[in-house]
Design goal:
The complex is a heterotrimer of chains A (489), B (390) and C (307). Chain A is built from 16 helices and 18 strands. With 489 residues, chain A is an alpha+beta fold. Chain B folds into three domains: 87 residues, Alpha-helical ferredoxin (Fumarate Reductase Iron-sulfur Protein, Chain B, domain 2, Orthogonal Bundle); 116 residues; 112 residues, Rossmann fold (3-Layer(aba) Sandwich). With 307 residues, chain C is an alpha+beta fold. Chain C has two domains: 171 residues, Uridine Diphospho-n-acetylenolpyruvylglucosamine Reductase, domain 3; 99 residues, 2-Layer Sandwich (Alpha-Beta Plaits). In chain C, strand 3 and strand 4 form a beta hairpin. The longest helix of chain C has 14 residues. Chain C starts with 8 loop residues before the first helix and ends in a 14-residue tail after the last helix. The chains are: A alpha+beta (489), B alpha/beta (390), C alpha+beta (307). At the A-B interface, helix 2, helix 4 and helix 12 of A face helix 3, helix 4 and helix 20 of B.
Chain lengths: 489, 390, 307
């Protein structure tokens, strides 16, 4: 007991749902305070409109199962929440569902070097796992920029990528088995440690389903051996187009680097201001390229990348001389989203993917669109995958800004689709990109996606109102419940 | 409720969440309410949307250790320290946060004789096992203290309040080290009894301002450097410029140096001696690492005097001491300390070096063999290279 | 908006052929015709369209119709120094995806399920459905392509896929040694493309830059007497799937002759793998999936990947 607890008023909420949850877990692991629920109604996106019901902190599969059964009994939705770093509103609760925080399910259960697998709870932080594996010479390959805080459960929900997924593949390729509490309360193990577990790949369907198919409670992830040699190059360009063309040329040359990342000048300036890693702030764009593997091959590929860069008018080619320098360059790249607040307090982010060959034109198009809508844009992206991240930065307090930002965003998305691209490369659809789904897919396509969803969750209980647009989702069948009175949202 | 927050400072947070793993209370609870992003969200709800100040919200602010580990982790440069200090000050004024009676304790800090008398009582009580363990008060507080002596006027050595009562030997070790480098030292002693850091920490900002004004007045006869061997005091004194917002305070803050920071520039002036035969793990006090950001100097000054320096693999996460935090929030402070102790055990050092009295006492209370870097250097210089701490 | 264009006439013809009423199955190369059960006699057999629709080597993606022989795919890719994850055993691309079996050099090529970026299939209702997208990274909506891989055409009849391709490494060589712990061989090198073991000999496939291979050969030499060899051993008929550690612990006395892919868990043996039990909770989801996608059970009747 802290001294303060003695002064504390206990809130007596007679809500039977809360009582049931508290009984199933422990009183202090079910929160129903308005402010705490407001916290659970937000993630790292700008979406305002979430309303959270009680927030639970289970510690085991068993407790998640109990919460789910209570949700069924009380006919409430249920939404899992990891670190809340999502950028598309996937974890934002709609219609006051029960929010299941995985914050206290953060144990690494087993490291099985023989099978090159680790069993973890969903709340384990991505970087914590790699840090834990480091003494044994392994790591978890997907490395989203938020890896220092995002959780593995969240990575699974979003099928997260990251700079190094260019060579290693996204989360899906690194998840072997998932224990899931289905929306009806059944506990099942999807996938398996063996390579061809047989049956429909329900594991594959679950990864990236944004919490709409159930809650992962135990995850078997593949371990990747740390490469003995790594080379990191920083190429600078006077023209953004040249950076994009260098990327295409590298891939066309048959090189698959571990990572190929581009930042434009505005982004570089903000990042350099935070990390002081020596990013050239006078370059129109910088390309961060990393190759890894055995020493000889790494040498050959690094030289080849430098050569291709110069052939495409790179004004500077620098190789990180030490691990510290390398780490600092990456720290800059990985904190880029956060650094934008130096420019303006809000940002709206798109995540489209275009064929790599379309990158150069696409960038020019983005600048043109944003200029026309009078919106500041900062670009930082996984160039090797063709995965763009135009950040539209603004101050929401200035009237009319949000409208302009949305208009510019919509044009960027349409231009990406016209270029043969898709809506999202790694952030997911959530609530923010829902409205664009029918521009990428036909009614029949979306209907089939909804069938997949219903096979897991016929009643639309898990993370209701997400991914599929209204008119295509089973959420239409079970209308989102109205906000209960007394909810402070 | 108006929390008196600066709108721009509050809006600098884009909710990216990168701060969360660097927050000790979030780390041990997994609860976002107890994270910097969470607390800023609550500030917004209360300050901008007039959300009720419920017990849960107050608790979120009360449980912040104020280690400020989130600040270097923030790419947007959110000044979390100012936000939480202002919030706590407003809540304290409104009688919602720190209980008023604790102000009595802070009053004693600025009155050396009262403090020393109280401390002697505690020392006796401690030996008789009368002090509850959760207060984290060392059982072997000194009953006698050797007097301070002035050896010259090159630098001040700021001796402070609790530390002077409980750890005067550290001041004296630091003084010998500075003297060995060829400088004359004036210990501040009763000239300037308390910097006001603990008061500011607890939300008694007016008291803190009074302490700051008095400290500046007492030490501004000339402009010699003021060396501080307590990271918490050093951080507070470097922040007087912000606290008082006067040119004099700014000028004063510019004269304040952490003792390691100052010595690192002059390390060549210390004689070469046999290093202590021990591996030393450096525990960075938050106010040295996250606030003053001069923690690397500790390594520079220790390097020549010990066999090996070992780094803890926990990103410099707080140990849970946090001024009076370990007394006000013993449960959380204990969990945070457990995490730190695991990090220490992982590297298995002979001794841990910590440049802050709060951290030392908090960790020593859990059985960690811990010393101030100055004590280790002093011991090497004296040639008393015996292993083990107190 | 439909993402189909008028250029996809072959797909529309296939959809029309499939119709929306009678029991139906697609005939590919027939190399895995018995997998997942015996097709009902009532099923009408149709062929999927063939041909490479679009190949962009610089994007490392290829759009190919399901009826295309895997051999043709390989030839086209090889011309530009690329390759795919699909196994070459005389079948079609659609068949390979619908069956979902991986290559024995899965470590080097990656699994089939990760190589299918987009799939177009004809639904039980006769519609052409698109899942996924033609780019290398995509989380737009639910992962239909994953569901199609290994589904044996029971949820939809695959008409066209977009596959991820990879550059063929500059050098490639099989090595063999007797009496070597295969797990040690796997651990001795950084990224072997395949490590096979038959209970007495170990085969290792190394691929990459010439100088990297030299480096890896030196590493292999420290654990055994590895010599260059023509290729992998001929695999026995029955296919097993085991956790990698179990595959590495197999004995001839128990399973007969076998070839195990170390670090992967695919095993070819003389005897069939004991039947694995299906978790009842999973069976419910799988059944519901089948019913939702194919309410009348007309797609590949008699086959069931979940059995």
């Amino acid at each position: 007991m802290s001294l303060l607890d003695r002064f504390r008023r206990t809130s007596n909420v007679a809500d039977p749902l809360v009582t049931a949850l508290q009984h199933a877990l422990a009183p202090d692991r079910v929160r129903n305070d308005g402010a705490e629920r407001s916290l659970a109604s937000h993630d790292a996106s700008v979406f305002e409109g979430g309303v959270s019901g009680p927030v639970c902190f289970p510690t085991s599969t068993d407790e998640v199962q109990r919460i789910t059964r209570i949700a069924v009994e009380h006919d409430r939705g249920i939404v899992p929440r990891g670190a809340g770093t999502g950028l598309a509103g996937g974890a934002i609760p709609l219609g006051a569902p029960i929010v299941v925080s995985t914050g206290k399910m953060n144990r690494i259960l087993e490291v099985d070097i023989e099978n090159r697998v680790a069993w973890v709870q969903p709340g384990v932080i991505n970087l914590d796992l790699s840090r834990h594996l480091r003494p044994r010479g392994f790591h978890f390959a997907p490395d989203p920029s938020s890896q220092q805080v995002c959780t593995l459960g969240g990575n699974i929900a979003n099928n997260s990528g990251g700079p190094h997924c260019l060579a290693y593949g996204v989360t899906d390729a690194h998840v072997l088995a998932i224990e899931v509490v289905l929306p009806n309360g059944d506990v099942v193990l999807l996938g398996g440690l063996d390579p061809e577990p047989g049956g429909y790949d329900l594991r594959g369907a679950f990864v990236g389903s944004e919490g709409t198919l159930g809650i992962a409670t135990r995850i078997a992830v593949r371990l990747t051996k740390n490469p003995p040699a790594v080379r990191t190059l920083l190429l600078s360009f006077a023209e953004t187009r040249d950076a994009a063309q260098t990327v295409s040329a590298i891939i066309a040359a048959g090189i698959v680097p571990a990572a190929l990342e581009v930042m434009d000048q505005r982004m570089t300036v903000a990042v350099e201001n935070y990390v002081a890693a020596g990013y050239p702030t006078d370059a129109a764009a910088v390309l961060l390229a990393e190759v890894e593997g055995l020493p000889a091959g790494v040498e050959i590929e690094a030289d080849r990348i430098a050569e291709i860069g110069r052939a495409n008018n790179a004004t500077g080619v620098r190789q990180a001389a030490s691990d510290e320098e390398r780490a600092l360059l990456w720290k800059g790249r990985k904190t880029a989203f956060g650094a934008v607040a130096q420019v303006a307090p809000d940002y709206y982010l798109h995540d489209t993917v275009v064929p790599r060959a379309a990158l150069a034109d696409m960038l020019e198009k983005i600048y043109e669109i944003c200029e026309r809508h009078d919106v500041i844009v900062m670009n930082v992206f996984h160039a090797g995958d063709g995965n763009l991240h135009p950040l539209l930065v603004f101050d929401a307090r200035v009237e009319g800004t949000l409208e302009r930002v949305h208009a510019a965003g919509a044009e960027i998305v349409r231009a990406s689709l016209d270029a043969g691209g898709v809506l999202s490369g790694e952030h997911g659809i959530g609530v923010e990109k829902q409205g664009y789904m029918d521009e990428l897919f036909s009614d029949a396509d979306l209907d089939h996606q909804n069938r997949l969803r219903q096979a897991f969750d016929p009643t639309c209980r898990a993370n209701p109102g997400k991914v599929l647009p209204m008119g295509h989702s089973c959420a239409d069948i079970q209308a989102l419940r109205a906000v209960p009175t007394g909810v402070w949202g | 409720m108006d929390l008196k927050l600066d709108a721009d400072e509050l809006n600098a947070c884009v909710q990216c969440g990168l701060c969360m793993p660097h927050c000790p209370t979030f780390r041990v609870t997994g609860d976002e309410t107890l994270s910097p992003r969470g607390r800023i969200r609550l500030m917004r709800e209360v300050h901008e949307h007039d959300a009720p100040m419920t017990a849960e919200v107050v608790d979120a602010f009360a449980t912040c250790v104020q280690c400020r580990g989130c600040e270097p982790a923030c790419p947007s440069g959110v000044n979390y320290g100012h936000l939480i200090e202002t919030t706590r000050e407003t809540l304290t004024r409104a009688g919602k946060l720190t209980p008023r009676w604790t102000r009595l304790g802070f009053f004693a800090l600025a009155h050396p004789r009262l403090l020393r008398a109280g401390s002697s009582v505690l020392a006796v009580a401690g030996r008789l096992r009368l002090v509850p363990k959760r207060f984290g008060v060392p059982r072997d507080l000194p009953l006698r203290r050797r007097r301070h002596h002035t050896s010259g006027t090159d630098v001040y050595l700021f001796t402070g309040c609790v530390m002077d009562a409980w750890q005067r030997d550290v001041h004296q070790a630091g003084q010998r080290v500075i003297e060995a480098a060829g400088f004359g030292v004036t210990p501040t002693g009763s000239l300037s009894p308390c910097c006001g850091a603990l008061q500011a920490h607890a939300g008694f900002t007016d008291d803190a301002r009074r302490r700051a004004t008095a400290t500046i007045a007492a030490l501004s006869e000339d402009d010699r450097p003021i060396l501080v061997d307590s990271a918490g005091c050093g951080a507070a004194m470097k922040d007087y410029g912000h606290l008082l917002a006067t040119p004099e305070a700014e000028a004063f803050s510019a004269r304040v140096f952490d003792i390691q920071e100052w010595l690192a520039e002059r390390i060549d002036r210390l004689p070469a001696v046999d290093p202590l035969p021990m591996c030393v793990a450096v525990q960075d006090p938050c106010h040295l690492r996250h606030v003053q950001r001069v923690h690397l100097a500790t390594r520079t000054v220790l390097q020549p005097f010990v066999r090996r320096i070992i780094e803890l693999d926990d990103d410099g996460l707080c140990c849970g001491a946090g001024g009076a935090y370990s007394v006000m929030q013993p449960e959380l402070a204990g969990e945070i300390r457990d995490r730190k102790i695991r990090a220490i055990d992982d590297v298995d050092p002979d001794v841990v070096a910590s440049a802050n009295p709060g951290c030392s006492m908090h960790l020593a209370a859990a059985g960690v063999n811990i010393e101030h870097p100055m004590v280790l250097i002093d011991r090497a210089l004296q040639g008393t290279a015996s292993a083990g701490g107190r | 908006m439909s993402s189909l264009t008028s250029a996809d006439e072959a797909l529309h013809a296939f959809a029309a052929d499939v119709g929306e009423a009678d029991p139906i199955a697609v005939e590919g190369g027939g190399s895995r015709w018995q997998t997942g059960g015996v097709l009902h006699e009532t099923a009408r057999l149709v062929s999927a369209p063939d041909g490479i629709v679009d190949y962009r080597p610089e994007e490392m993606v290829i759009t190919v119709r399901a009826g295309t022989p895997v051999a043709d795919l390989c030839t086209a890719l090889a011309e530009t120094g690329q390759r795919s994850a699909l196994p070459e055993r005389g079948g079609t691309v659609g068949g390979a995806v619908a069956v979902g079996e991986n290559r024995l050099d899965l470590l080097g090529r990656g699994p089939v399920r990760d190589s299918v970026l987009q799939v177009r299939y004809v639904s039980a209702q006769g519609d052409i459905i698109t899942g996924g997208g033609p780019v290398v990274k995509n989380v737009s909506g639910f992962n239909i392509p994953k569901l199609m891989v290994g589904s044996l055409g029971t949820l939809g009849l695959i008409a066209e896929v977009v596959l991820r391709t990879n550059p063929t490494p500059p050098a490639s060589q099989w090595f063999r040694a007797a009496g070597v712990d295969p797990v040690a061989a796997r651990n001795a090198v950084l990224r072997p493309s395949s490590v096979l073991w038959n209970g007495s000999s170990t085969w290792v496939l190394l691929e990459g830059h010439e100088r990297d291979l030299e480096h890896e050969i030196t590493a292999l030499a420290t654990i055994g007497d590895f010599a260059e060899t023509e290729g992998p051993p001929a695999p026995p008929p029955y296919r097993w799937s085991l956790p990698p550690a179990e595959a590495a612990a197999l004995h001839r006395e128990v399973v007969g002759d076998f070839v195990a892919a170390i670090g992967v868990g695919i095993v070819h043996a003389d005897t069939a793998q004991p039947t694995r039990e299906v978790d009842p909770g999973i069976a419910v989801v799988a059944e519901r999936m089948k019913t939702l996608f194919d309410p009348t059970g007309r797609l590949n009747p008699g086959r069931n990947p979940n059995a």
